[in-house]
Design goal:
By secondary structure, the protein is α+β, with helices and mostly antiparallel strands. The protein is built from one helix and two strands. The chain is 34% helix and 14% strand. Strands 1-2 form a two-stranded antiparallel ribbon.
Length: 73
């Protein structure tokens, strides 16, 4: 999937194909403006935010379920 992420150094938007980009198989993607390497998991990345949200949601749901069972009625 193609996504746009900003460079950490110059804040220029870069288009990256996240399905084919990897450190072991492909060269590291670089910024089109300054030439610095782009991080694999950028904090502004949509996929990074989705992953963090999913783990937080699962943790909160499990905590609520345990509190429902544990606390007396």
């Amino acid at each position: 999937m193609i996504e746009k992420i900003p460079c950490l150094y110059c804040q220029t938007e870069n288009t990256v194909d996240s399905e084919t980009t990897g450190y072991l198989t492909d060269p590291v993607p670089v910024c089109c403006h300054c030439g610095m390497a782009l991080p694999k998991a950028h904090p502004s990345s949509r996929f990074y935010k989705t992953r963090v949200f999913l783990w937080a949601f699962v943790f909160i749901a499990l905590f609520c379920l345990l509190m429902i069972i544990y606390l007396p009625r």
